[in-house]
Amino acid sequence: xxxNEKCLCNTGSxxxxxxSGASDLGHLSDIIARKLSSxxxxxxxxxxVIANGNxxxxxxxxxxxxxAIDGCSGDCSKKILERARITDFNHLRLSDLNYKKGETPTNxxxxxxxxxxxxxx
Length: 121
Description:
Structural class: alpha/beta
């Protein structure tokens, strides 16, 4: 198995959550997470359920390979996971990839570019 391939026998073991904020970067984060889920790379779960204290999902996430996608340095998804005491996860921040809040188009070119990075995390 190549290093970027993942066994998805149990898709619940590879999960993604994201900021779905109102900005362009929040929108892109959401699109990327949904694309990872629809392509069966990762399973998308509701970040709000974690923030709401769903202990079953929190315990599952503590054992899973989780990717948190944030648009900006507000790090909403990262902070929600950390507050739930989920500390072992991967984090992708779009602003670290030189995308700027309020200045980034939500188009197929940008989606594909970010997706290629996210699917290999």
